[in-house]
Design brief:
With about 600 residues, the chain is α/β, with parallel strands linked by helices. The chain contains 16 helices and 25 strands. The chain folds into four domains: about 150 residues, Alpha-Beta Plaits, CATH 3.30.70.1790; about 70 residues; about 230 residues, 3-Layer(aba) Sandwich (Rossmann fold), CATH 3.40.50; about 80 residues, Winged helix-like DNA-binding domain superfamily/Winged helix DNA-binding domain (Arc Repressor Mutant, subunit A, Orthogonal Bundle). The longest helix is centred in the last third of the chain and has 25 residues.
Length: about 600
């Protein structure tokens, strides 16, 4: 086996080398080197993290599932002939003596069941485009995934890895990863439970801890029945003797071993049996569910935060209904996290909303609490833990996160990977507090003409809002005093309705129900038909007058309380329906009403005004 070196920029020489040695196993050093040695002491920096998974140790399908389940997909992947090599390109090169490099490599190897021997900086790996001569016939080394522009910060990968244990000849100290991905949940929770039992915790304490960690860290959390079986196994399994380093690496690293498999069990629901699952329960009828994840979206400056604040204050102040229409069914405690709006704006809005209720608008202490511009980051495990622990300690079961982008400053707002991870975080929060989490988010600009308001308007990839059980979308119409609201739920039919918003400092109820979209449109049509009939009746009673402006003024004087533009539109519609006549053009136009004109439904004539 020979070793040779080339400058990083000398691509032509490397291509020539590959051609000359096409019938040999060829490897490359992942780290760049100094001098003429490939040893660790000559390694300088690395530009990626990597794993080497051997299909002899991990079946190919299982390996694929493990890599796919990891939240950050590799930048480059290749088939090595007998396994897979995966690389995560880093945004910045890392010195080989950096204290975080080796734990990151070993953490990836442990999580993805890769070769631990390959998890060291001096490692050499197979070159794509060559052949693996360990097999007869030789197998091609081929790239299967290539995204060289997809780079990641080391901290992002470390966030998903278990912390390294102590290596002192005893079992390593168990450390929980910030997030437990699907495929590692049973094993990780089992290890946590066994470590708690080893410390002498009671079965009740072990159960409570595993339930909380399952809800907070697992994405998605284990089902309650499956978790219950796992907890029982943790508690009932006899303690194993302390491992002896002489027994080998498996005993020394504290792994449960094959004799203690992670339990897997699911409940079977007989289709012929009587089921007793609870029906969908509402916090606010036909508006907010009692539990679950809600996405609350709309364009900036369209009133989405104002409306949600109003709804929360209705609940906290004991109002019977929201907007005079939606009954409030319960009074949970609320935590409102406001990252965009400061204290002054929130205070003015709160006082303006409460002013309309007078003495009935008094808030009970603790009914709703605010965290104002905390610079909270949903990618920060400590921040998320504070939210969870605060809600549990204060018995808060409604959590508002306003807004999504402001509370995830380091995330790519349109990146599927970041948004999926964030959605997993809030879904776990929702499960942990066993209540309702409402995410305020921005929608896309420039909705196509004629397109209806829908969940598709939410900014960014659909992976984030698809975790929600309930979606509320808003848009403002005209001068902003009327809001269109679209509701979509996994458990109920969707609906569309309008809300009217009172002016600031008017002393009126901030929002009032204006009816469904269908009802409002029908009422508008009826109003338009009635006004058009009034225009025709008035036109028949007055003598034809010369001049368009004079004619319209004459109609207004005759008692029509309509604007000039509206009267002009009705006149045009009446002429199209042969109920009115006109002679001349421009200012000299003369109008008159046709007596005994045939009645024709206005809906059959295009372009009639709904006013």
């Amino acid at each position: 086996m020979g070793v040779t070196f080339s400058d990083l920029g000398n691509g032509a020489w490397r291509e020539s080398f590959l051609v000359q040695h096409a019938n040999a196993n060829i490897f490359f050093g992942v780290a760049d080197r100094k001098g003429a040695s490939g040893k660790l002491e000559n390694c300088l920096t690395v530009g990626c993290l990597w794993v080497d998974i051997d299909f002899k140790m991990v079946p190919e399908e299982e390996a694929r599932q493990l890599v796919t389940a990891f939240p950050i997909r590799p930048s480059i992947a290749l088939r090595s002939g007998g396994g897979v090599h995966a690389y995560w390109l880093l945004r910045e090169r890392l010195a080989v003596d950096d204290l975080t490099l080796l734990p990151a490599l070993r953490g990836l190897a442990a999580l993805l069941r890769a070769d631990r021997a390959a998890a060291e900086p001096a490692r050499v790996l197979r070159v794509p485009g060559t052949r693996n001569f360990k097999y007869d016939p030789p197998r091609e080394v081929v790239i299967t995934q290539f995204h060289p522009d997809q780079r990641v910060a080391l901290a992002e990968i470390l966030r998903h890895l278990p912390a390294p244990g102590e290596d002192n000849g005893h079992r390593p100290t168990f450390r929980m990863p910030v997030q437990i991905i699907e495929g590692a949940r049973n094993d990780t929770l089992y290890k946590l439970g066994r470590s708690l039992k080893a410390k002498g915790l009671t079965p009740q304490a072990i159960t409570a801890t595993l339930e909380i960690e399952n809800a907070q860290r697992c994405a998605p959390p284990l089902a309650q029945a499956e978790l219950g079986d796992l907890v029982a196994h943790v508690i009932e399994q006899p303690d194993r003797p302390r491992s002896d380093p002489a027994l080998g690496p498996e005993a020394a690293n504290g792994a449960p071993g094959p004799e203690v498999p992670s339990p897997v069990s699911w409940t079977l629901h007989d289709g012929a049996a009587t089921w007793a699952f609870p029906a969908l329960a509402y916090l606010v009828d036909d508006l907010l569910p009692h539990k679950g994840l809600v996405w609350w979206g709309g364009l900036p400056k369209r009133g989405k935060s104002l409306l949600l604040l109003y709804v929360c204050l209705c609940i906290a102040a004991g109002r019977k209904e929201v907007a005079g229409h939606f009954p409030v069914q319960s009074r949970p405690r609320i935590l409102y996290v406001s990252e965009e709006d400061g204290g002054g704006r929130l205070q003015a809005r709160r006082d303006d909303i409460l002013a309309a209720w007078g003495a009935d608008g008094a808030l009970a202490p603790g009914a709703i609490c605010f965290v104002i511009r905390p610079h909270l980051d949903l990618f920060n495990a400590a921040h998320v833990r504070w939210l969870r622990e605060t809600c549990l300690r204060e018995h808060i079961t409604v959590l508002v996160l306003d807004t999504w982008t402001a509370l995830s400053p380091g995330a790519d707002p349109v990146g599927a990977q970041d948004q999926t991870r964030l959605a997993q975080v809030v879904a776990a929060l929702c499960a942990a507090i066993d209540g309702l989490v409402i995410v305020v988010d921005h929608s896309r600009k420039n909705r196509p003409d004629g397109a209806l308001l829908s969940s598709a308007d939410i900014l960014g990839p659909s992976q984030k809002w698809q975790r929600a059980e309930h979606i509320v979308m808003l848009d403002a119409l005209g001068d902003g005093r009327r809001l269109e609201v679209f509701l979509e739920s996994k458990d109920a039919e969707g609906s569309r309705f309008f809300l009217d918003r009172a002016a600031r400092a008017s002393g009126m109820e901030k929002f009032t129900y204006a009816g469904t979209v269908t009802a409002v449109v029908e009422a508008s049509r009826e109003k338009g038909a009635s006004n058009r009939a009034k225009v025709l009746d008035t036109l028949r009673r007055i003598a034809p007058v010369s001049g368009s402006a004079v004619s319209i003024q004459a109609l207004q004087v005759a008692g029509l309380d309509l604007s000039r533009d509206t009267i002009r539109a009705h006149l045009a519609a009446l002429i199209r329906e042969d109920k009115a006549g006109a002679l001349g053009t421009g200012k000299a136009t003369r109008y008159w009403g046709v007596v005994n004109a045939p009645e024709m439904p206005a809906s059959l004539k295009p372009g009639y005004p709904n006013e």
